[in-house]
Structure formats: C-alpha cells, structure tokens
Write a structure and sequence with these properties.
single chain; 371 residues; alpha/beta; TIM Barrel; 9-stranded mixed sheet; 17 strands
C-alpha cells in the first residue's frame, strides 16, 4: 500500500497574532467558543469517516499532523475523538509520527498525558521568541516563562520528540536578541527547531501597519545575517540543517513535513486544509481551490519543493517518477541556470542537484527557473 500523511486543521486559537495569515478564529467568548468547537469536531469526525471510505483501502498512514490555529485549545476529549476517528477509518502504522501544534498558554499536564495516551508522539511548541517585549509586539498570548514551564511539563509527561518554532527578522529585533533566543532554546535541548523569517501577510495587523507606514521591515542584510548565524550555531550544537527553515537532531527530521518537500501525497481534512492526492491539489472551504496537475506542474513542483531540502533533488528519482531525464526536460533552461552554477549558488554532483547555503538567499530566483 502507498504511504499517506494526514493533516487535520483546527481553526481556533486564543487570539490572532499580528502576523498570522493562516485560517483561524480567535475564541474570546468562552460559552460560544465551546459550542463552536464541539460542532466543528463533530463535523470533522464526519469528514474523517467520509475520507476513510474513499482512501482506507489504498493507503497506509505513516504521519498525522494536527495543526491550526491552535489545536491544543480544544478539550482533551476532542483530540481523543479525532484520533479515535482516524484510527477507526484509516490504516495507521504502529510507528506513525503523530504531531500536534501548541501554544504554551493552552497546555496542562492532563492534556499532555492524554495526548500521549492517544499515540501523539511529537509536540510542536510555538515559542517564536524568548524576549517578552517581542512576544507582546507579535501579539502572542504567552510569555517566556509560559514556554519554559510548558517545555518542562511536556518532558515530564513523556514527550521525547519536541519541536520549537522560532521567528526572526521581526521589526525592531536586534541580532543580539535573536542570538539570545536561539541560545536559550538550545539550552532546552529540543529534538527539532524551526526558524522562520517574518513574512508580512495580507489581511493581518502587520500588513495594515506596513501599508500605512507604521511598520518598517528589517533590513534584508540583517535578516540574512540572523539566518546564517542561526544555521552555524545550530550545527555546532549538533543539529542537522535539513531544510531551508528546519534543523533537527539526527533521526528527528519531521517526517510529515518532508512529504510536502518530497512530492509525496498528503490528505488535508478540515477548514482550509490542503491536499495533494493522485496529482490533484485541493484546498477545502472557505479557501477552496482545485487544480489538476499536468506534466509540467508535476515536474516543476518536484524540483521547486525538493530544492528546499538541503540534500536537494535526485535526478534519478526525477526520471523514475516522470519517465524522462531531468536535463532533457529542462534543456532549454540550462543556459539561464548556468549563472547560478557559476556563482556557486546551485550545485550539481553526480545524481544530485542542490542549493548551497548562499544559494538559499536567492532560492526563489533559482526555483523559478524550473517552474
């Protein structure tokens, strides 16, 4: 049977952060929030059953990712019901990687213990920064102390695979503040660290501030300086930089997210969840999309997403998947790509094609050559 990753979207959070462009709804009224969450979970379980009827006999689930929003805002029995529905309606590997995203303000020992009992074996904590002033500026609901308490709590409750999300290039942030955040997180010794440059997304408070001139993005040079410093520091601490924005201890790379970058199939269930199944890309309502890939779409996406991985792409795998040699498909673009080979931004040796660390800084330019 083919392998499949399942993504479950929970569109609720304590509050919308100032930068967040994901589909989510802040839950401010306690009574109304509980009713909305209960209704959504019931609907979600129905969708899981529906998708199970369609795909159960064709796929073996080896990764599950419960994201949002903030799925840990739900009561533990809701997460138990979701996990139960997945196991009842899909064939799930015994060693499947099962991740849940969290905000430090939403976790308790009871929740964490019950998550572990359902088989959830990977916790992703949205820390973003160890600086309380920056967290307040970002609109986060937690502070540094909340993160540290949550992290220790998760360890005591049996989580031995923890990711910490960090953000840099925040307006007003200094390199010293970023370095302090990275150092403090390394001291906690998580298995995985994600580190993203702040992006200004439409329909967010930060976007409105940017349009009105109240927000000035950080200088590109400082952004890149922060990024490359973090790569070096994480490597020296024993992490492998395996994807543009992700580093992990050996053996702890996120198996689910690797599906997105390896042209593998994944099924999204829930509001605004995206799927890639049988060469068709879809996004659920309310951001509904449908696109049937052709050969050029498939080949371009294989290269575009694959180059995000530090190991790059395999030309042999390309030929096996698409029935044509890599440079036969892209022969007409070789001359345009040559400048990136000459500068050392794009590297080729034997079967592999990959970006150098400097090449990451212009990755979009390079990837666009193959789309």
């Amino acid at each position: 049977m083919k392998k499949l990753g399942i993504y479950i979207h929970v569109p609720f959070c304590l509050k919308r952060c100032n930068y967040c462009g994901f589909y989510s709804n802040a839950m401010t009224d306690a009574t109304g929030a509980r009713e909305a969450q209960t209704h959504y979970v019931q609907w979600l379980i129905g969708k899981i059953r529906e998708k199970g009827e369609e795909f159960r006999k064709k796929y073996l689930v080896d990764t599950i990712f419960i994201g949002g929003g903030t799925p840990t805002i739900l009561q533990p029995e809701a997460i138990e019901a979701i996990m139960g529905a997945i196991r009842e309606n899909f064939a799930v590997e015994s060693d499947a990687e099962i991740t849940i995203e969290s905000n430090p303000k939403t976790l308790t020992p009871q929740k964490l213990k019950r998550y572990r009992a359902t088989g959830i074996n990977r916790l992703s904590i949205g820390a973003q920064s160890m600086d309380d002033d920056i967290l307040k500026y970002l609109g986060r609901a937690h502070d540094r102390a909340d993160f540290l308490e949550t992290y220790e709590m998760a360890r005591k409750c049996g989580f031995d695979n923890i990711n910490v999300d960090l953000m840099f290039a925040i307006p007003g942030q200094t390199k010293a503040q970023w370095q302090d955040t990275v150092e403090q997180v390394i001291m906690q010794d998580p298995e995985h660290i994600s580190f993203y440059s702040l992006q200004i997304e439409e329909d967010t408070p930060f976007y409105n501030d940017y349009i009105d001139g109240r927000l000035v993005p950080l200088d590109d040079g400082l952004d890149r300086d922060m990024y490359h410093w973090a790569i070096g520091r994480l490597k020296s601490a024993g992490y492998t930089h395996y994807e543009i924005s992700n580093a992990a201890k050996p053996g702890y790379e996120c198996r689910h997210n690797l599906k997105y970058w390896s042209f593998d199939e994944y099924l999204g269930i829930g509001d605004s969840a995206s799927s890639f199944m049988n060469g068709i890309r879809t996004t659920e309502k309310p951001r509904e999309e449908y696109h049937e890939n052709d050969f050029d779409d498939n080949a371009g996406e294989f290269v575009f997403t694959g180059l995000r991985k530090r190991q790059g792409i395999s030309k042999r795998e390309f030929a096996e998947r698409f029935g044509r040699e890599f440079w036969d498909v892209y022969e007409g673009r070789r001359a345009r790509v040559q400048e990136f080979f000459d500068s050392g931004a794009l590297l080729e040796e034997g079967d592999r094609l990959w970006l150098s660390e400097d090449g990451i800084d212009i990755s979009n330019q390079i990837m666009a050559m193959f789309v």
